[in-house]
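Sample entry (210 residues):
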Amino acid sequence: MKKVFVICVLAILLVGVSSGAGEACSRKEVSGASQIIDPSRGINQRLLNRAILAEVNYERCRNGLHPLSAEPRLVGAAEGHSKWMAKARNVTHKSTIAGRRSPRDRIKRTGIKARTGAENIGMVHRYQVDDIRFIIRNAKACHFVTRTGKRIAPHSYSSLARTIVGYWMRSRGHRANILNAKFTRMGTAAAHDRRAEYCGTYYITQNFTG
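Predicted structure, serialized as tokens:
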């Protein structure tokens, strides 16, 4: 059977959700996901993947789809590409690493036998400053506040998961990947670029297979 791979770069397009859909669905509570991410000590990729998987499966439930399962090999592939993007400071599906230049290459290297696959990518600031107006009190100390003076915190695993999945769900192509009924497994990982403004940026890669 022909293998199909779909790639999507983050682009925000508002998409409506029918009213009353998924009323019986709830987000799975992920133990430990409320802790703040400290990239200087490393990112717990498995915990991040569990947090993102909970968000993805919540959206799939709301749309009448079966849940996805975590696949460690896809987490590994996603981590490798996220690290490359963070180093290159570029949100792109095309890598310069031999044998891992495309989503198809990266998924194939996992050894997973898949009939179909896809990749979502995106970028989120380390601190929760995206999509809001904020004031920089001290950039070197990462002191950012809202317009009402409330201190802005760095992302936790759960807040990062909800933010990136929220972005993907508002983008037609990413949403289609998350809600693809053919997919059964997922793996997501992030890498931190500490050189970016506002104390750093997370580059995130999400892989699916079915």
